[in-house]
Amino acid sequence: MMESQKYAIVDLETTGHSPANGDRMIQIAIVIMKDWKIERTFTKFIYPGKAIPTFIQDLTHITDEDVKDALPFEAHADYIYELLTDCVFVAHNADFDLSFLQAEFKRAGLPKWQGKKMDTVELAKILFPMSLSFKLGDLAADLNIELTNAHRADDDARATAELFKYCWKELLSLPQLTLEQMHKRSFRLKSNLSQLFFEALQIKRQHVTSNENVSYYRNLAICDGRKKYTNNAEIVSYPQTVADKTALMTKAMSNFEQRPAQFEMMDTIWEALNDKRECVIEASTGIGKTAGYLLPAILYARAVDKKIAISTYTSHLQEQLVEEELPKIEKILGTKVNIAVLKGMQHYIDVARFEQCMAYADETYDDTFTILQILVWLTKTETGVLSELNVSGGGQLFLEKIRKMPDEKPSKGFDFYEQALKNSEFADCIVTNHSMVLSDLVRQTPIFTHVDGWIIDEAHQFIQSAMQQDEVVFSYTQWKYVFGQIGTMEETALFQQFSQAAKKKQRVSMQSLQRLDTQFIRLQRTFDETIQRAVQKMQQQIKGKQASSKCTLFLEDVSIAKEPLLQVSKLTQQWLDLATEVGHAFENNIEQLDKSEHYILTEWHYWIRELKVKIAEWEEIFLSPQDDNSVWLEFDLRSVPGSLHVFKKPVNVTPIIEKVLAPLRKQASIVWTSGTLTVPGNERFVTRQLGISDSVQVIKLQAPPSYYSGAKAFIVTDMPDIQHVSRDEYIEAVAHAITRTVRMTEGRCFVLFTAQDMLRKTVELIQDSELLDDYMLFAQGVTGGSRMRILKSFQKFSHAVLFGTNSFWEGVDVPGDALASVIVVRLPFSSPEEPVFKARAKHITAQGRNSFNELSLPEAIMRFKQGFGRLIRSSQDKGAFIVLDRRISTKSYGKEFIKALPPIDVKKLQLPELLKELNNWQK
User: Which stretches make up the Helicase ATP-binding domain (predicted)?
Assistant: First the structure.
């Protein structure tokens, strides 16, 4: 019997990150654990011999007072060194704690500590790959581990010990096959986790347990996520009267408040579904829009035994529907609702492709790490949707390789996407997104032909989706990346591996390989020359113009010669034909393919497909007629051609939407709903773009005025006029107003800009001033991560500020008490230079109409309404809506913005008065 391992779980608090620069320890805690039980703990304040910086005091709540009577590290060094002997060193971010400790040992004249280390950050990332954050505090909250005082060594060390123990149990719950695959790869990790994986595997092999919820596919253990559908005998009939509705709702919610607008919404939708009509409902926050459409939709699906589809804009809204809203409806109806979530194919993992990637030995650390995360995730995920994973930047590249692609051959064996389609056949209700509905048009087998009723939520975003759906992008670096992955015979890339494997067993003639190589070199040369010519044309265009480093030009103004563009297309096509032919010869050779040949062939097909996609984009952008589209180039003068992107977007999406909806309109009713569908003075701004006939009435449902009693709007009148001061002065005034307001409302603030550049400069200025150092600042385009990730991080902190631009105003949802104020820095007009906007405005002006009144103003008012909508999500919410843009009180159109707000108190005042007002209000 092997001696069981002792672990020393360590946490340090220090005055900073670098012992070499004089940073010192201020607290140490060590928890000794054996047989997964805590044997002893050691914790001491340490005298650092210097003042503790204020931000460290804020973070740790350890003050100079706390450490003034403590002994210096040297006094404890021998004891600590002894304590760690024969232990595995464990810490949350072990590299930091161990290197700091080693430096302190050295300073105390002790030799370097020798032993193994394990890092719970590395371990948690592998075992909880769906966690949003791997900070100790966030993991503790997710796993219900007690952590009262984060950033205090004693509490942190105990929480890390609990986390370590939790990870051990998690390891033991994994299937043996998964553990074997993980152990085999674990030697490449940065800390000694292989030892832990091996121990878990030994135990697993001795106590063979069957994992009921896992199926085995080829060589992988996968969560058995097949939906168990129920046939409910009892059908609840639709509650016709107010009393019936109230009775039904009260059954599930004891504190149910009756909202007349919600009941009206239900009746309208119930009738529209039964009469196969189209209807449009603008439902302001506070009427309970989601329940307002879910209840009649599900009761209708049950009554007529047909399917209902609900389409939203973002994945986040899909998740919210399924995880939060549907359970409420199930409770009301007292029965399970059969629901299926459907996303586009490329959202799902291609399991067969993942297995092939695993069989190939040449991996980077990021690849290895991501494979370990995926092995664990496959035993847990019911959907196979890759966005559930929280991987590193390098991991993202790996995920791109294993996405499900519209392949020629359907995959054999298990397939998450096919499973999602199957689930949707048995569901009462399909939850999908706008882009999936729009792309159903081009699918070989349309999925939505059996849907009897549609609810399109966030309907105004359907226009955005149609634009994105039809957007085509050329990216110079992506082309170069594809070229680099394929490579020539001389370069160590795929083609070299391919030709070596082909020559070894004479699968392909030498002559064919050389032809392919020559063709590829010629293609790359022509591509580079064509781009070089375009770059010269671009540089001529901006000469003399006041050019910042980031530039935008319309393609028609650059006038690139057609001939070289055609030549690139022709050469690519020739190479693709040859490469496909050579691939078939490789495959159809009499000799069986071994594992590595199989992998090389799959890679070969994959990169052929990638290049096919690229050339289709090239032809769409540069060689096809551009009617009704806007095509423009974006680049950064500091890095051309590296930064070159060319975009093609439709100017008018109405025909695209009408084409998609024509067949749906024939067979089903369509209910369009959103919090913002109209603007004062331009009722049909959105519905006309959606191709909805003017004969369809827009029903506007508003929450009672009392719902908004906690909201106030303030217009700050003493901000400088951007026209009369320099940009820097304006940004300084904005930064000053933001910092003062945030300190007064104690964070929980959304700051909305219209330009990324101004946002970045303001955030930098605020960071340099250190006035908000005790707040967490999250900024779109500055903080890494997706919009959703930034938003979820923001929600976790009570002292936080979120900075976003126009795109953040739309389609983000911040629940309840997450917000205390929204600051509107500039009225959300589109930049007149924004290419799609510019093209649309040009299109309107060409018809002799006024583009400001018909496009610019209504669009800005819509966003403004959206911005306000973020603030009050329930009748208990309190929030300040603060506008820093003077134009709202000086320009004639300003009152249109104010009219778009619900009936709330709007005050115009100077900044000092605003701060006083906020201060009194907070109290």
Answer: 248-535, 270-496
Residues 6+ apart with CB under 8 A from 252: 328, 331, 332, 334
Cα within 13 Å of Cα(913), Cβ side: 10
Please name the residue ranges forming H helices in 115-192: 120-127, 136-142, 153-172, 176-185
Q: Which of 597, 581, 573, 587 is nearest to 520 (CA)?
A: 573
| Residue range 601-656, pLDDT digits in tens | 888 998 999 999 999 999 999 999 887 888 999 998 888 899 999 999 998 889 98
Q: Based on the number of CB atoms within 10 Å of its own CB, is 597 exposed (0-12), middle (13-18) or buried (19 or more)? A: buried
Residue 674's nearest CA partner among 465, 511, 832, 430 is 465
- Spatial separation of the C-alpha atoms in residues 131 and 170, rounded to whole Å: 14
Among the listed residues 761, 678, 778, 693, the one whose alpha carbon sits nearest the alpha carbon of residue 727: 761
First to last CA, the chain: 65
* Residue 316 clears pLDDT 60, i.e. is over it: yes
pLDDT digits (tens, 9 = 90+) for 765-824: 998 887 887 788 888 877 776 677 777 777 777 788 899 887 776 656 655 456 788 999
Whether 285 has a binding-site annotation, put simply, is yes
- d(CA 176, CA 200) in angstroms, rounded, equals 9
283 is in an annotated binding site: yes
Residue 290 known to bind ligand: yes
For the chain, what is the mean pLDDT? 88
DSSP summary character for residue 622: I
> DSSP letters of 797-850?
-SSEEEEE-HHHHSS----GGG-SEEEESS--PPPTT-HHHHHHHHHHHHTT--
The upper half-sphere exposure of residue 860, i.e. CA atoms within 13 Å in the direction of its Cβ, equals: 26
- 3-state SS class at 29: strand
Q: What pLDDT score does 1 carry?
A: 38
> Are the beta carbons of 485 and 497 closer than 8 angstroms?
no
Q: Average pLDDT for residues 755-773, to the nearest whole number?
A: 87
Closest by Cα among 446, 431, 439 to 471: 439
- Which residues does 535 contact at the CB level (< 8 Å), separation at least 6? 640, 641, 644
The predicted structure's pLDDT at residue 591: 73
The answer to whether 286 is a known ligand-binding residue is yes
Q: In whole angstroms, give the CA distance from residue 267 to residue 242.
A: 10
